[in-house]
Write a sequence for this structure.
């Protein structure tokens, strides 16, 4: 019984996955956990299939993805422009960097009641929440990336007669890009989670809204199927942004 | 040196300049809210500051704030204790690590906010649901950093200790524990951020006497000054708890570097 290590790991993981499914099934047998809390696996997967084929989820999915894209776009533009302006002199970095870092340690979800008051129950309040939460990692990483570019590169480019734009485009940006991308990935992922959270708390439409209304109607089978969908979506988003990050980094090198 | 410094334009110390920036932002907000905004929706910072007195004079609100702090601390302590035990049990053995870590990572990718209704179904609308949700948000970073902390333990150290006849307990207290301390405190810091998010999210989702209830009440009865003041109080609590964890992390990782 000497399997290669990789195969053995794969077998262990498969076994554990099967064990989890079996436990889930066993727990929902008669006399087990109430189906209102934990539905049996088979109907959940069936509902998940129905969800994919009928496309009833698309309108809500569209709302959530729309909110996410708008929030991320605003945060990316604002964060990188402000980060660039701050990074222009070491003095402004010293003044603003701790300010942004301090604000970042306040949980942004606290602002959500205010955003509901200002922007109402629709997508605008979710976009505001997602923008706030994504802004800080992007601005902090832009500052960190641009202000840590090796001085020797800048001096070399200047002495070879590069103007401001050339200096920025061919020296500063490629050198700082990997750090900025990391901030953008982090911002994108937490903005998505925050938007789902905002939709769960108060909203009119969206994935979070859909899951909460299913829960409040005690339709837990449908709810689990929708949560499964959200999980798959989160994994896809994670993989996509990580892929974009590594491609972007390769471009910069 | 002096001559060099004199040639540069005189500038304010960055710390003072930062305070000036904050003061400027407050001033813009004050003027904007006082003269241009609808008083039903926005309130100037001075009014929010004055509303603080009213908040602390109401024993129900003080109690709600106390409950929230209790929920945060309880969730944090439970997440760290559970996460540390699970992390050690899983991370110290190759088999359990290979078997359990993929599940932990899978669970960690679930957007947990969507599970909030389930927590309310299982634990009710009281503090238990908030604590449970805070724990489930924060236990995974603790497990992951604990496992990472024991993963890069040098095998030579373990072999040496064993060959000198150290007991399991001695190995743990003299080798494993000191080695994992820096990553453990990193995990604690991340866990604190997650606890704050989890507890506040759960409070805002449903609450009958906690701060979630009061934020909703103030928003719906158009009392922005009270709402701003309450949010400021919560932000102060969150920053304090975060800063405590960060200080602990800095303190203990310095200790490790000095010893290494």
């Amino acid at each position: 019984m000497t399997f290669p290590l990789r195969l053995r790991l794969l077998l262990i993981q498969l076994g554990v996955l099967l064990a989890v499914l079996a436990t889930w099934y066993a727990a929902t047998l008669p006399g087990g956990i109430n189906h209102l809390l934990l539905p049996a696996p088979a109907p959940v997967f069936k509902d998940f299939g129905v969800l994919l084929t009928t496309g009833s989820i698309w309108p809500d999915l569209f709302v959530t993805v729309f909110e996410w894209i708008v929030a991320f776009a605003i945060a990316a533009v604002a964060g990188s422009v402000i980060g660039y302006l701050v990074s222009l002199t070491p003095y402004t970095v010293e003044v603003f960097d701790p300010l942004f870092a301090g604000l970042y340690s306040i949980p942004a979800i606290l602002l959500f009641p205010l955003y509901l008051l200002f922007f109402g129950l629709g997508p605008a309040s979710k976009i505001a929440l997602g923008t706030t939460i994504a802004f800080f990692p992007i601005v902090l990483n832009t500052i960190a990336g641009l202000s840590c570019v090796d001085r020797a590169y800048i001096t070399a480019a200047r002495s070879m007669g590069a103007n401001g734009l050339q200096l920025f485009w061919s020296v500063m940006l490629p050198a700082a890009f990997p750090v900025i991308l990391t901030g953008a990935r982090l911002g994108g992922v937490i903005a998505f989670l925050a938007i789902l959270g905002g939709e769960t708390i108060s909203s009119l439409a969206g994935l979070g809204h859909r899951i909460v209304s299913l829960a409040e109607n005690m339709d837990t089978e449908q709810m689990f199927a929708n949560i499964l969908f959200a999980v798959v979506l989160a994994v896809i988003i994670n993989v996509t942004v990580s892929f974009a990050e590594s491609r972007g980094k390769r471009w910069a090198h | 040196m002096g001559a060099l410094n004199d040639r540069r334009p005189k500038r304010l110390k960055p710390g003072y300049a930062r305070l000036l920036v904050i003061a400027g932002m407050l001033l813009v907000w004050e003027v904007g809210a006082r003269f241009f905004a609808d008083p039903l929706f926005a309130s100037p910072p001075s009014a929010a500051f004055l509303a603080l007195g009213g908040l602390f004079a109401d024993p129900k609100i003080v109690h709600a704030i106390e409950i929230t702090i209790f929920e945060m601390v309880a969730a944090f302590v439970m997440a760290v204790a559970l996460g540390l035990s699970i992390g050690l049990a899983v991370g110290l053995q190759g088999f359990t690590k290979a078997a359990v870590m993929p599940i932990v990572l899978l669970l960690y990718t679930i957007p947990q906010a969507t599970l909030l209704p389930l927590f309310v179904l299982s634990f009710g609308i009281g503090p238990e649901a908030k604590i449970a949700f805070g724990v489930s948000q924060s236990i995974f970073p603790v497990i992951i950093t604990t496992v990472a902390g024991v993963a890069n333990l040098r095998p030579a150290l373990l072999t040496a200790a064993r060959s000198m006849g150290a007991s399991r307990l001695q190995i743990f207290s003299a080798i494993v524990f000191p080695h994992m301390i820096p990553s453990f405190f990193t995990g604690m810091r991340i866990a604190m951020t997650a606890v704050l998010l989890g507890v506040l999210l759960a409070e805002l989702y449903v609450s009958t006497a906690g701060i979630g209830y009061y934020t909703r009440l103030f928003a719906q009865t158009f009392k922005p000054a009270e709402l701003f003041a309450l949010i400021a109080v919560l932000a102060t609590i969150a920053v304090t708890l975060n800063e405590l964890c960060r200080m602990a992390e800095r303190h203990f990782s310095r200790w490790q570097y000095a010893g290494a």
Summary: The radius of gyration of chain B is 24 Å.
